């Protein structure tokens, strides 16, 4: 503030104070203390403090934003529900306001991600495999989670037992843990001609097929409700059923 | 003292207190502006006694006229203007004791011999006429012109005083000379 000049008067402060003492009585003023700027410090506080506070608030806000942007998303509450036909994977994400995108791939193939409500998502996996969930924030932070999917029925019905009784072939079929045997899909045909055998009886309750013991090799085909097929070749000469 | 926004607020607060009769505020204003005003006065007045008298006149004017200041944040520029006018008045009063710059009288004003006893009156009369013409046209031109031919400042000193470039100072003085030549030369 002091204007250092090479033209300051000789005596400097002495001349200055002397002039002041000379003037004050002429002006009818009290000759107070000379020199100094006592109210300048208070004025500086009043002027700079609010501005410093604003600057500090801006800096803190910027730091806060920087910190928040650096925080990655986190997967929570991951659960899978299976209805044999597909597996619904539900999950939620923390730090959702900073999320830029949420994607999913099932063994490298993109699948749709459905937003249920704030922070909660669902993905329907149509087959078994590894579901890779990816969350990306606006700051570019990426978080991934691999969810094994094994609840989709991709196994065919099984022949659990076979027997002969009174000239009848009885085959017991089951689709344990699967979607169930689709009894409408049962077909028993001559393995050579492909013609349907006659008098084939289905007993859904018992889970069995019965038909007259074939004289020649016969093929029994059945699938489950998911369409997983199973075929059994019957060879009467050996007396066994072969899948 | 730099005329920053903080200084404006600070001096503005002092001006308000002085208006209320606060002698401490006047003392503080005097203290913080003394060097700035003194530097400007010493550019215009060479005699130490004149400097002393001018400084007293300036601050007494500041105190007595503080009520006429409309914008308190302009108190420092206002004080600098008071300093300029006080110094110009003192220089004008001294015209009978000395002659106007030769380049002014030889080139622009109608000639009169330096031996002529009416020369002092002539100089003051010519100066008053020149001042009236230039003040009417542009205060800026008059300020540069008076600093050059009344106070006898060099171009770079005028530039520093007016806070402009020397090119601008030359332009002001050239323009002032052209106006006076046209108005005063028969």
Question: TL;DR of this structure?
Answer:
The complex is a heterodimer of chains A (243) and B (186). Chain A is α+β, with helices and mostly antiparallel strands and 243 residues long.
Describe it for me?
The complex is a heterodimer of chains A (243) and B (186). Chain A is α+β, with helices and mostly antiparallel strands and 243 residues long. In chain A, the strands form 4 sheets. A 4-stranded antiparallel beta sheet of chain A has the order 1-2-6-5, with no helix packed on it. In chain A, strands 4-3-7-8 form a 4-stranded antiparallel beta sheet, with no helix packed on it. Chain A has 2 helices and 16 strands. In chain A, strand 14 and strand 15 form a beta hairpin. Chain B has 186 residues and is mainly α. Chain B is elongated, with a radius of gyration of 18 Å.
Annotate the secondary structure layout.
The complex is a heterodimer of chains A (243) and B (186).
Chain A: H1 13-27, H2 38-70, E1 74-82, E2 87-94, E3 99-106, E4 109-111, E5 114-117, E6 120-125, E7 129-137, E8 142-149, E9 158-165, E10 168-174, E11 181-190, E12 201-203, E13 208-212, E14 218-224, E15 229-235, E16 240-242
Antiparallel strand pairs in A: 1-2, 2-6, 3-4, 3-7, 5-6, 7-8, 9-10, 10-13, 11-14, 12-13, 14-15, 15-16
Chain B: H1 5-19, H2 23-44, H3 48-65, H4 75-93, H5 102-107, H6 119-137, H7 139-149, H8 155-162, H9 166-184
Helix pairs in contact in B: 1-2, 2-3, 2-4, 3-4, 6-7, 7-9, 8-9
